[in-house]
Amino acid sequence: MGALASPEAAHPEWLWHSGALVRWEEARVHVNAVGHASVAAVFEGIKAYLAADGERLLVFRLEDHLRRFAESARLCRLTLPYDTGRLREAALELLVANGFRQDAYLRPWAYPEGIVRELMLPAGARCEVVVDSWTFDSSLETVPGCRAAVSSWRRIGEAAMPPRAKAFSNYHNGRLALMEARQNGHDWPVMLNERGQVAESAGACVSLVRDGRLVTPALSSGVLPGITRDTVLALARGLGIPVEEREVDRSELYLADEIFFMGTAWEILPVTAIDGLPVGVPGAHPAAEEAAAAETGAGAAGPVARRLLEAYRRLVRGVEGDSPWLTEVKPG
Ligand SMILES: Cc1ncc(COP(=O)(O)O)c(C=O)c1O
């Protein structure tokens, strides 16, 4: 089904809090730091992959995630006390301290500092920053599939709150859609935007494939500017797969040859059924079906998703060699 990162896993030894490494047990804040302060809080989700050589930990697109973190803070009118360079050091320092030798997930977040009793926090509020991290089982090697359903909840839009911000408050939207999907026996929702066109899921962007073309909702469709989405589009272009970023109709989901979600936590997650309809119109694309059947270890992915998964796996595990998108975690 694909899984969100699992914070209930055994906790790491160290966190980074307001400029220093802090032992997990000693990382404390006043009760006032939860509640109202959370309304304006922003965060990021970043992955570090164990390289294919089993020796090195490689953080994927760290600079881009930290840039989006700063942009989320700006959209929520928060003042981060650290620049991107300092947060980069913090992330790497934390990964070294925790000594992970397997795939890991990094979670920086910023919340307004001090006593916050007002929901209407003034613009420019200074923040505290925490970076948490935990181990993470990648599904790049196993490739599960999931069943998705169009949600009755619409994705938040520019008229209500900025969908481009990775703000905790935005996640109530996805949470409602996810609970509805689970209640109805599906794994993940697909949310339409306020105009009724496809937006994204509850923590991942979405793409479909039709007649060999990869189609994904434009950033102006109310999606978070996903870093995995951006990576997948770059990989597709590199593989000669035509890419369309545009408004996507709901009915296109039902006619797609393939659908998959894209996100840091979900990686590339194939959708095997949408609203109970198996993905891929039987008989419509015999060449693609034959190609799919001929290959082994396909998991739930269609032929295009499979090529992208392989390219993504090779990229993040450093098989393709050095990439400006990879930052090696080096002690000291
Ligand atoms: C709401 C939402 N959309 C999309 C994504 C996918 O973005 P990314 O690929 O940068 O993780 C995420 C995950 O961060 C998300 O929370």
TrEMBL record:
Family matches, as Pfam families: Aminotran_4
InterPro entries: Aminotrans_IV (IPR001544), Aminotransferase-like (IPR036038), BCAT-like_C (IPR043132), BCAT-like_N (IPR043131), Class-IV_PLP-Dep_Aminotrnsfr (IPR050571)
Keyword field: Aminotransferase, Transferase
GO MF entries: transaminase activity
Taxonomy, superkingdom: Bacteria
Signal peptide: none
Family from the record: Belongs to the class-IV pyridoxal-phosphate-dependent aminotransferase family.
Name assigned to this protein: Aminotransferase class IV
Organism field: Streptomyces oryzae
